Structure formats: C-alpha cells, structure tokens
C-alpha cells in the first residue's frame, strides 16, 4: 500500500511538472526567437504563439514575422504561418535540444523595392552578414569573460529536418499610393541536420536562426532574379508614367495657370 501511494505521488508530481514546465518553456522560446532574431536581422522578429505537447513533443507555432527595415511601406519581409514542430522531449533538459522536424506551410515573402538599387531583402541580408561576422582574433581577449561564458554555456540546437513548402513571393514597387506588384512561387526549401556539423553538439540558437533566415532570403532572392520579377524597372516606369500621365491630364483640365 505504501508503494502505491509513493507511485501515485510520483505521477502527480510529474504531471504538475509538465503543467508548469510547458508554459515556461514556451515563454522562453518566444523570448529567445525575438532576442536573437532581432539582433541578427536588425529588425523586429517575433514569434506570436507556441504550443507544445510535453507528452508527445508535437508542437504548433502560430506565426513568425520578420519586420522590414525602416522606410518600407509593407510591414514584413516574410511571415511564416502554419508551422508544426516535433521535439525530442528528452533533449529539452540537456545541453542540446533536438528538433526532429519543422514544417512550414505557405509562407509569404515580400520583396519591396525603394529604388532600382535598394530593396528590403538585400538590406536584411547585409544586416545578417554584418551582425554575424566573426570578430578579429585580437578582439576576443578584450571581450568580457561573463559574455563569453554566457555564449559558450547557452543551449545548442540540432534541427534534423526543415521543410518550407507552398510559399509565395510578392514583389512590390512604385510611389506612395501608386503601387504595382507581381508575384512568384517560392521553391520548396528543404534543410537537414542543421547544427550537426558542429561535431554533433549542435549550433547556438543565434547560428540556427541565422541559417534558416538566410536560407529563406537567399532562395527568395534567387527566385526573384530567375523569374525576372527583380527587373521591376518596367513596372516602376509604367507606374510612374501613369502618375505623370494623370498629372498631365489634370494640368490640361485646369489650364497651365489654373484657369
């Protein structure tokens, strides 16, 4: 009888631990994605909602958004919806979290051009390159020990399988209130064993986020070039001609002196 009560006590404690641990873990994941994602891209990165079944390791992410740099009219460079994940629950308490699979359905990538030489994707790619660049070897000595310790002691991640499918690229250009747009299909993105190259110990959270975002942006950029929607000069000129034509018509209506 005594053993029975001990067993029941263990079961109750385990379920209580699951109940309190899950919301805490989900909150931590949201904060980590925001912190490292924003530092890497130089724009606001947010994970809106995350639910994880601690018993099975199956989870669902409501949405991940990566904001555009300043001066762009569209809010996000990309928005990821319909994300399902499968986590190795046993790995959560260890040094390396193993994510068995991540599936993203129908992401939307927005390519916005401010001019023929300036667009949101290339700006964020430049931010990532700058923010993830290796520091000179001589600067490591001047780095605070606490910062280095925190970096070395952080959780590592391995993503065994990442699939992004059914995405769309929306290319936008034009003047204020006179926008023109075209679209193209984003090719399927399939990445495997992200982080395993680090002697099976996993990548840092920052490195993992950087690799995934960089892959999405580079695939989008190549698609834009290959599909020739990057050549928005014609679209922009046509849009501008429409605006100028409208001005000319208005001048004709009121007369050059407003009569």
List keywords for this structure.
259 residues, alpha+beta, 12-stranded mixed sheet, 5 helices, 41% helix, 32% strand, globular, disordered C terminus
Structure summarized in a few sentences:
41% of the residues lie in helices and 32% in strands. With 259 residues, it is α+β, with helices and mostly antiparallel strands.
Mind explaining what this structure looks like?
There is one protein chain. By secondary structure, the chain is α+β, with helices and mostly antiparallel strands. The protein has one domain. Helices cover 41% and strands 32% of the residues. Strands 1, 2, 3, 4, 5, 6, 7, 8, 9, 10, 11 and 12 form a twelve-stranded mixed beta sheet that branches. Helix 1 crosses helix 4 and helix 2 runs antiparallel to helix 4. The longest helix has 40 residues. The N terminus and C terminus are likely disordered.
Work out the number of β strands: 12
Distance between the termini: 103 Å
Task: Output the structural class.
Answer: alpha+beta
Total domains? 1
Computed CA radius of gyration, to the nearest angstrom: 24 Å
User: Number of helix segments?
Assistant: 5
Q: What is the subunit arrangement here?
A: single chain
Helix content: 40-55%
Tertiary shape: globular
Q: Provide the residue-averaged pLDDT.
A: 77
Summarize the main sheet.
12 strands, mixed
Low-confidence stretches: 3-21, 137-153, 242-259
Question: In what range is the share of β-strand residues?
Answer: 25-35%
What is the N-to-C succession of helices and strands?
Answer: HEEEEEEEHHEEEEEHH
